Predict the structure.
Amino acid sequence: MERPYLKIDHVSKTFQRGGAVSEVLKDVTLVINKGEYVSVIGHSGCGKSTLLNMVAGLLPVTSGAILLEDREVNSPGPDRAVVFQNHSLLPWLSVYDNVKLAVDKVFSGTRSRAERHEWNMHNLELVQMAHAKDKRPGEISGGMKQRVGLARALSMEPKVLLLDEPFGALDALTRAHLQDSVMQIHASLGNTVIMITHDVDEAVLLSDRIVMLTNGPAAHVGEVLEVGLVRPRKRLELVSNSQYIKAREGVLKFLYERHRFVEAA
Amino acid sequence: MSLPLFKNDEPLVKPAARVLSLPARLQKRNLTFGPILRKIATAVVPPLVTVIALLLIWQILCDKPGATLPAPTVVWKEAKDLIVDPFFVYGTQDVGLGWRVLVSLERVGIGFGFAAVAGILVGCLIGQSDWAMRGLDPVFQVLRTVPPLAWLPISLAAFRDSSPSAIFVIFITAIWPIIINTAVGIRNIPMDYRNVAAVLRLNAFEFFYRIMIPSAAPYIFTGLRIGIGLAWLAIVAAEMLTGGVGIGFFIWDAWNSSRLPDIVVALVYIGLVGFVLDRMVGFLGNLATRGTAAS
């Protein structure tokens, strides 16, 4: 195996509030290769989002280190673009301007105005949102907002794309639609992706590997499952695919047999 | 309450009888004007009726001999030139109320302008920094309760001139609600927007005008609206004491020469201008915050 692209090295995270100390993540180690699509799955409250926020640099690690191309991650930056669960588009800017904010910030020194405009439109077309470029976020549906959020993240040409339950707030049909879009984009651009999810089907359908976190407190990597399915993957064909069913079963067994979510634990 | 209602009934009965006969003819020719006219009528008729009713009560109360205040008819008779022509110029001190209002508005404009800029900046500072909040907020909470006029002697002593003193009083009156509302707006910026700014590595200046100002705009405009109202309240009082050409001094001058009808007219002017100022800031706020409300 080649030199690791992204390395999460014995990372722990504790939160301190007043006198109370809670250990959220303990000794999480994970190596992600370039172009790989990795899902992190676990019950709610186990620290998935905390892990993602640390990779994004939005939260500092308590101990251990996160290395991207051998450089330590200790602050947020556009090389690790995040698609947030609730889109977090700026409501006073149009769809185009929301993406423009990112494009201008990242490429103002290296590309001309015309090139930036083209790149902006290219990314909107990639997520099929070019038609709504002048609309405000308040005027488009939840799925569309998430597409724009994805376009904004992609437009930064990140080394790692971080998806924080990107489809969590969407209805099942819209979600399937967006998952297909993400698969296409991943196939054509070859992004390195870390996706937080609690949807087993989503994880199996999209990922190369599924990282399963144990229940908190002090959650750690319980198991890593390789999804050996060939790409491109077709949603309908997979329904009866034995490899798919086995992978799905593996995740489900982990989540519901070995690490059952204990209510009010 | 029952008095105006009685008055309402009487004038309404007659027009109602007339209006009823008209739509029968209008319905075919003028379909588009009907609803618009009705809309205007519903907006204009009730306040008009109220005003007429109030004028009538006033007239009745002040029309008897020995009344201490002038009745509307007296006001009309004695202060007609002030009412009809706001912009006459008979001499340096004898000018229409429109000119006086403009002079006052200029002072308010300068004082309020400074207050808006300084208030928004300081509000951003204490909204953004916990230490600034802890240090400055208690001081502000005490200072903001000081009545505007209490600042006047101090500002007169400091500036040694009436005009800058009046402007300072406006400034110090209007700035508190702007600071406090801006600070609340900044504190309420959603964490998501801050995260977006962090991922994009916006610098402090970009964060200020890309995220902070638009996100806090509804709060800021609330502060500005309260501020302009207070500023207009304070200008009259300040001008009464500092003199000059403003509307406040006009009232004081009229009182000293016992021209009560003039004072009544000036009060109406002040009320109308204050109303317009409030609506203007409200309108600007709506214009500027169209996007932020719908997220």
